[in-house]
Amino acid sequence: MDVVVKRRAAAFVCRSCTRRSQKQLQLQPRLRLRRSYSSAPPGPDIYDVVCVGGGPAGLSLLTALRANPATAHLRTALVEAQDLSKLRSWKLPLDRFSNRCSSLTPSSALFLDKIGAWGHLERSRVQPYQEMQVWDGVTGARIEFDWASGTPPPAGTTIAYMVENLNLTSGLLRRLDELGGVSVFDNAKVEDISFGEETEELDLREWPVVHLTGGNQLSARLLVGADGANSPVRSFAGIEARGWDYGRHGVVASLQLEGEGWGGDQTKVAYQRFLPTGPVAILPLPGNLSTLVWSTTPANASLLKSLSPRDFIAMVNAAFRLGPTDLAFMHSQSSGQDLEYSWRLEHTPFNSRAVPQTVAVVQEGTIASFPLKMRHADTYVGERVALVGDAAHTIHPLAGQGLNQGQGDVQSLASTIEYAVSHGQDIGVRMSLEPYVSERYLANHVLMGVCDKLHKLYSVESGPLVSLRSFGLNAMNSFGPLKTFLMNQAAGHGTKVF
Amino acid sequence: MRPSLLLPKHTPTLLRQQQQQQNVSRGVFGCTVAAREQGHHPHHHQQLQLHTAATSTTSSSSTSSVNADEISHFSALASSWWDPHGPSRPLHLMNPLRHDFIADCLASSPEAATPLSPPAAAGTQTRGLRYLDVGCGGGIFAESAARRPGTHSVTAIDPSATILGVARQHARRDPTLTTGTPAEPKLQYLNASIETLPLPAAPERLFDVVTLFEVVEHVDRPAAFLDACGWFVRPGGWLVLSTIARTWTSWLTTNVLAEDVLRVVPRGTHDWRKYINADELRAHFEDGARPVVMGVVYVPGLGWKKVGGSEKLGNYFFAVQKRDVVRDRQNKINRNWGVRL
């Protein structure tokens, strides 16, 4: 019986061992019989990496591991609550865009290209942009991030790529399907996470076992929590996530503007205006389409969602053109914003080329909102546990860095695992995972702190802080080298500071 | 005990033995396969079968390199061996460098690095590396070597039964380590010293890599110990070790700072007088191929870093390849033919 137990254990570890033991079992039919007649319930399946969550972070982690010859032999499993076949067959016409878009930095795009996923995205739905216009809604102080004021880097003038989250995840899934070898458990909820057991041969009391709906049990050398802000994996590991709610909601929508933008098809511009209630941004999509991200109070958000399309469009156009007082009044109206906007606009001087082109259409059914939070887990690892993406941190969307932070985590964790494998380390133990934490924790913390402080700085409506921040923004705008540096930071090339 | 101020005049253990052993054939790495087959090793006549834990006992014979005080010191540390923040943390941190060093050594002579298949087995698949880890302790290196891609098997020996108990228990936590065949498990721990371990009779059962990590500074009679370890290396294989140079710096860092001031290493772990310098090892293996030496420095907070030349200061890796007389002869013939053609 010893031999049988040993073979079973071996079979769970790697494909070559599995093949070998299957061969041995075929040679000895007696052993196989004994196994099949066993009345004991089947024990958990043993995996090297079990990833809970099939979002951008989880999918790109598994893709990175499978695409790398050094880690491709690892036994991996993906657990996802949604039905992945819907994601596989995701398709939209080119004039319709999903309302959940992210800004992918060139370094994230480079990583996705390295793991072979970038080519699987619908490229006609990906929009690079080359300039940013950011201004203060109270004072009008402005910073223009365009390469004309500094030297464009050799890596290209793209600051970031606007990508629909679904385009990214479905592309990653296509790449993962192409690579194969991952046991996929979709439509499956995590019912419980417990610890393994001790047998005569093995002591798996420190190995997490994921119990799924339907009875599957997955034993994990390394359990990866890519399972979002309310991560069950994080709770299992007893890791606290600390932070605060901003008391703000992010309102999103897919918009059609009256043209391709002031820079035409070649130079796309992202616009962000800091209002006292929070920043509002219009980010370019292909053609005359754009995506809206408007952080505002929950009351304003629910008003915006209740408006007619005409009034909603008027509010968005007003948000980039009218003063905070005008906006506050328009938020108090239950309807009629369209009329209100047109007469107030006549009395508001502004440079039309310094704001996005006028919004003409809001795509039906794309207006939605979600609460904004700031959360940071105390650590990203525990014994046989690692957290990536939103499970580890949730950031204010004002700099569009959330998804990129997740990709940065994945890149770091995948290379940590590669190093551990090539040096014979057990990839699940905390010691092997330490480099991942030391590489990512502080970098994420600094970026989250910066975004948090920016949000708070621009929430102030009057007082010395307002003139100080305007002075700072204007000073930065006239100082080319600093701007080039900041643009490089945003784009993720140049010397890494954040 | 602390070294006196007469530091440079201290006669190192290794040299003292070398002086005593001048008449004994020195440096197994210069000896031929024929010499080994004539039975220089005391255990040559034993069966190929290796000791099992139950039958072997800690040797107390006069030929043993095992020091009873060292055994009791390390046995007392057994429970904390695998605590990543315990006293063995520096060893855990050093472990990846050991693999890098071995990989560098193997890469330095690629044609000899692949195990030479015996003529009978010609045409069969190249197997992975076979390791012998001498003084394996809790198994930090042995486990990692067994897990590495490209490893066939690891045999790990230690004279302390207490520590081996910890090693065996810990290996049960990883299913990968319980693979292999009953005849040759992936990872096998044996309670033995190098002197009590039987030398395999069949040359193909010798080891590709024999490792002694942080061991030579803890044994009695290091010269004889190194020679005994050398018998287990296959021709063309490598003897790899790491140890500490006997210098003012190493006395200050490993004894005073690490043990007494910072207390990152348990007191009594190191006896400075037993440290061996790289030059002494070079002299010991003078008949062998050119040794590979790499100095490493521990930077608190950052871990171990390779620093060229630092083998003259403190911790260093040392490796020497065993001469492969058969292959050398074959290469010579090939060369001669090449010239004639």
UniProtKB/TrEMBL annotation, chain A:
GO molecular function: 2-methoxy-6-polyprenolphenol 4-hydroxylase activity; 4-hydroxy-3-all-trans-polyprenylbenzoate oxygenase activity; FAD binding; oxidoreductase activity, acting on paired donors, with incorporation or reduction of molecular oxygen, reduced flavin or flavoprotein as one donor, and incorporation of one atom of oxygen
Superkingdom per UniProt: Eukaryota
Subcellular locations according to the entry: Mitochondrion inner membrane
Signal peptide positions (record): none
Biological or metabolic pathway of the protein: Cofactor biosynthesis; ubiquinone biosynthesis
SUPFAM superfamilies, sorted: FAD/NAD(P)-binding domain (SSF51905)
Keyword Flavoprotein: yes
Domain FAD-binding: 47-245, 360-440
NCBIfam families named in the record: Ubi-OHases
Subunit details: Component of a multi-subunit COQ enzyme complex, composed of at least COQ3, COQ4, COQ5, COQ6, COQ7 and COQ9.
HAMAP family found in the cross-reference section: COQ6_monooxygenase
Function field: FAD-dependent monooxygenase required for two non-consecutive steps during ubiquinone biosynthesis. Required for the C5-ring hydroxylation during ubiquinone biosynthesis by catalyzing the hydroxylation of 4-hydroxy-3-(all-trans-polyprenyl)benzoic acid to 3,4-dihydroxy-5-(all-trans-polyprenyl)benzoic acid. Also acts downstream of coq4, for the C1-hydroxylation during ubiquinone biosynthesis by catalyzing the hydroxylation of 2-methoxy-6-(all-trans-polyprenyl)phenol to 2-methoxy-6-(all-trans-polyprenyl)benzene-1,4-diol.
Protein name, entry field: Ubiquinone biosynthesis monooxygenase COQ6, mitochondrial
Gene source species: Lasiosphaeria miniovina
Taxonomic lineage of the native organism: Eukaryota, Fungi, Dikarya, Ascomycota, Pezizomycotina
Automatic annotation (TrEMBL), chain B:
Chain positions recorded as Mg(2+) binding sites: E214, E217, H218
Matches recorded under Gene3D superfamilies: Vaccinia Virus protein VP39
Membrane topology note: Peripheral membrane protein
GO CC field: extrinsic component of mitochondrial inner membrane
EC number: 2.1.1.64, 2.1.1.-, 2.1.1.114
Gene Ontology molecular function: 3-demethylubiquinol 3-O-methyltransferase activity; metal ion binding; polyprenyldihydroxybenzoate methyltransferase activity
Any one Gene Ontology BP term: methylation
Biased composition (Low complexity): 47-65
InterPro entries: SAM-dependent_MTases_sf (IPR029063), UbiG_MeTrfase (IPR010233)
SUPFAM superfamilies in alphabetical order: S-adenosyl-L-methionine-dependent methyltransferases
This protein's pathway: Cofactor biosynthesis; ubiquinone biosynthesis
Cofactor(s) needed by this chain: Mg(2+)
Presence of the UniProt keyword Ribonucleoprotein in the record: no
Positions of the UniProt region annotated as Disordered: 37-65
Keywords linked to the UniProt accession: Magnesium, Membrane, Metal-binding, Methyltransferase, Mitochondrion, Mitochondrion inner membrane, S-adenosyl-L-methionine, Transferase, Ubiquinone biosynthesis
Compartment(s) of residence: Mitochondrion inner membrane
Function recorded in the entry: O-methyltransferase required for two non-consecutive steps during ubiquinone biosynthesis. Catalyzes the 2 O-methylation of 3,4-dihydroxy-5-(all-trans-polyprenyl)benzoic acid into 4-hydroxy-3-methoxy-5-(all-trans-polyprenyl)benzoic acid. Also catalyzes the last step of ubiquinone biosynthesis by mediating methylation of 3-demethylubiquinone into ubiquinone. Also able to mediate the methylation of 3-demethylubiquinol into ubiquinol.
Stated family: Belongs to the class I-like SAM-binding methyltransferase superfamily. UbiG/COQ3 family.
NCBIfam families reported in the protein's UniProt record: UbiG
Subunit structure as annotated in this protein's UniProt entry: Component of a multi-subunit COQ enzyme complex, composed of at least COQ3, COQ4, COQ5, COQ6, COQ7 and COQ9.
UniProt protein name: Ubiquinone biosynthesis O-methyltransferase, mitochondrial
Species of provenance: Lasiosphaeria miniovina
Gene from which this protein is expressed: COQ3
